[in-house]
Amino acid sequence: MVVQRDSIVEKVSDLYEKISNLESLKPSKDVDMLFTQLVLLCTPPNPIDVTKLPKNNQEMRSKLIRLCGEAEGLMEKHYATILGSFDNPIDHFDLFPYFNNYIKLSLLEYNILIHHCSSQAPNRVAFIGSGPLPLTSICLALYHLTSTTFDNYDIDEEANSLAARLIASDSDLSKRMFFNTANIMNVTSELKDYDVVFLAALVGMNKEDKVQAIEHLAKNMAPGSLLMLRSAHGSRGFLYPIVDSCDLHGFEVLSVYHPTDEVINSVVIARKLQVNEVATIALTEDATVKNNVIEELKLKQNVDDETFKMNMVEEFAFEQNLA
C-alpha cells in the first residue's frame, strides 16, 4: 500500500513540475498532453488519502489544484468562444472533448437530486461558479429539469457573456437560464429563493475558501433546500478539492457518491437544516428525550449520518448568533 502511495505521489509530483514550468496553460499540444497524463494517472480508483500526505506533498497538491483550475477555466473559455461562433451552439457541444462526461455527470446528479427532492422537480436552481461553458446546468435544463429556472452565478463578466451566447438562440433555454456576475459571498437574501443550490468544484480552490463558501450558503439558503456540490475521492484529490461531511455545518448530509468511471468528481447532496429541528435538539435538557428526538428525526429522514446531531447543534448556535 505504501509503495503504491509513494509511486503515485512521485508520478504526480513529476507532472506537477512539468506543468508548473509551462509558459502558458492555454490549450496547446503540450498543455493537453500533460493534463491528459495527469487525469489518466489520477482517475483509476486508488485508496490513497491525499489529505494525510506529508506537508511538502500537501503544498504541491494545493498548487496543482490551482493550476488545474486555471487550465480548466482557459480551456472552457477557448471552447465557449468556438461554440459561440455557431448560429446554434447547442448543436455543436460535442466539439468539446469532455462533453460526454458532462452528460453522464448531469444524469447522475439529476438521479441523486430527484431521489431526495420533496416534490417532483425544483422550480428554481442556482448554479454557483457556472463559468464560460456551463454544461452541467445546460444539460440539466435540456434533458432533465425541463421546466426549472436556472440562475447561474460567476464572478467573471466575460465568462457570463460567453455562456449567455451559448443558449441565446434556443427559445426555451433563453427564457429559463440567466447569468449573473457576482461574488457569491455578496449574494445573501436571494439565496433563499432557490430550492436547490449547486456549488461548482472550482469555487473555493483550497479548504479554507471552500468551507467559507459553504458557511455562507448555510447562513443564507432557505431551511429545507438542497445543496449539491462536487468533491473528489482518492487520487482524484490531486485534481480537485475534497469536501468532507464535517465541513457541511448547518447541513444534513444525505448522500455521497464516488464514481469509479471517467466521471472524476464525487457528488455530495445535503439538506439545509430546519431551525425548529435544531432548536428541538439543542434545547432539550433530558438526554433520553434528546436521543429519542434525534432518532425520530433520523427515522423520518431515513438517514444515519454520524454528523447529524453535531450539525444540528452547531446550526442552532449559528441561528442564535444571527438573532
From TrEMBL:
Instruction: Give this protein's Gene Ontology molecular function annotations.
Output: nicotianamine synthase activity
Q: Which reaction does it catalyse?
A: 3 S-adenosyl-L-methionine = nicotianamine + 3 S-methyl-5'-thioadenosine + 3 H(+)
Q: What is a single Pfam family found in this protein's UniProt entry? A: NAS
Q: Which UniProt keywords apply?
A: S-adenosyl-L-methionine, Transferase
Q: Which domain of life is it from?
A: Eukaryota
Question: Per its UniProt entry, what is the enzyme's top EC class, as one word?
Answer: transferase
Q: Which InterPro entries match?
A: Nicotian_synth, SAM-dependent_MTases_sf
Q: Does the keyword S-adenosyl-L-methionine apply?
A: yes
For this protein, the Enzyme Commission number is 2.5.1.43
The Gene Ontology biological process terms listed for this entry are: nicotianamine biosynthetic process
Which PROSITE patterns does the record associate with it? NAS (PS51142)
Q: Write out the similarity annotation.
A: Belongs to the nicotianamine synthase (NAS)-like family.
What is the role of this chain?
Synthesizes nicotianamine, a polyamine which serves as a sensor for the physiological iron status within the plant, and/or might be involved in the transport of iron.
What name does UniProt use for this protein? Nicotianamine synthase
Which species is listed as the source? Answer: Lithospermum erythrorhizon
